[in-house]
Structure formats: C-alpha cells, structure tokens
UniProtKB/TrEMBL annotation:
Ranges of residues in domain Glutamine amidotransferase: 50-192
InterPro entries, alphabetized: ChyE-like, Class_I_gatase-like, GATASE
Keyword Protein biosynthesis set for record: no
Organism phylogeny: Bacteria, Bacillati, Actinomycetota, Actinomycetes, Micrococcales
Protein name: Glutamine amidotransferase
One Pfam family per UniProt: GATase
Record has Metal-binding as a keyword: no
Keyword line: Glutamine amidotransferase
CDD domains xref list: GATase1_1
Amino acid sequence: MKPFLLVATRTEDAAADGEYAAFLHYSGLDECDLVRVRVESNPLPDIDLDDWSGIMLGGSPFTSSIPVEHKSDTQRRVEHELGGLLERLVDADFPFFGACYGVGTLARHLGAVLDDTYAEPIGPITVEVTDDGAADPLLDGFPSAFTAYVGHKEAVTKLPPRAVLLGRGEVCPVQMFRVGNNLYGTQFHPELDEPGIIERIGIYRDAGYFDPAEQAEVEARVRGVDVSVPQGLISAFVERYAR
C-alpha cells in the first residue's frame, strides 16, 4: 500500500505529537503508512502525488482570516505552500481530508468567505448529515446525526463554488463538505477523543479560545461525550483510498 501523508502546522510539540497519535490511532495506520510533515518547522517538501494514497491536513493555531499584515512570516509561508499543494490536489481530484484548519484552508483556496461569523467555543455539537451527505460514500452507514468536538475562531460562511454540503450544525452551518469526488473537509475534529481534547484545552488555554479562568468549566463541558461516530471518518477515508 502507498502511504498517506499528514500535513501538520501545529507549533507546539505536544499538540503536534498528540494530533499525529490521534490520526494514527483512528486511521488504523502505523507510522510507516502515515507519514507526517511539520510545515511550520520546515518548508513543504516536493510531493509527487503518485507516491501517496491520500493527503490529510490537521488543525492549526493559525487564523487564516486575519489580515495578511498581522500574520507571521511562518504563517504566510505555510499558506503559500499549502495553496500550491491544494491547487494540484483540486485539479487532480486527489484524495484529501482536512479537519478544522484543513476545511478552512480548502474553502479559502476555492474562494469561500472565511470569518468569525460562525465561530464556536470548545465543546460538543450535533452534526446533521444532509441528504447529499447520506448519499456520499465516505458517510455510508453513518447515522443521520452525530456528536463531535469543535472549537474554532473562524469558519466558512458560505460554501465555495463546486462544493457539496455533507454536514451542518445549528450554530455553524458548514460542518462538512466535499469538492469534486475525493476532497473532504470537516469543521469538527474527527480525530479527537476525550483525553485528546482535554490535552488541547491545556495547551491552548492562553490562545484566546476561552477565558483561562474558565478552563475547568470548558473541560467539564467535553467530558462524558460519545464522539465515536466522527472518529470513523478517518478510517473510512483510509479504507476508501488505500491503494
């Protein structure tokens, strides 16, 4: 089998390693079959799409919708490199799965508006599968609604051209979409379980997602929640595109 590639942008080692461990666990892959590149540390290497089964893009501390002049040199470089990669992926209709930052990066590349209109605090939400979602092969066998973890400062306000809405939320209307036949994005985090989100809450307590004085309340909000359904998306993506 050709390996999958996880493109990571998290600047904190603990968050980056936790994300990779989560994608390994819920994909069912080992480190040989899920290769990670951390583009916040080094330039994105040359990627020959023929070498890979699919590409995943995880979350990030970067906020894409802020003005360019407020972005760091690293963020501007990363966004430029990801834009070049996404152009190739979209043109080839190549298997791609982007979570949180990944969905926004894909949508923004396609011309969608990304802003703080539908930001959501850290916690569980209900994702409703649309009729198009129910007919999508990646969501085959999934229930009509499921619970997932979110926590984001920006979101897609309107679907980009050519995109198909697969999942919606009550507060944030675009929770999952597909472009072409093989490129997917989710606003929610399918890779997170309870220990994973508790770890991220601690790592990002001073990053503006919540008042640090309310950390205990935020942690209480995410405990005891069944998020096993969205975790199945990662393994479904791998099973569908492994080659």
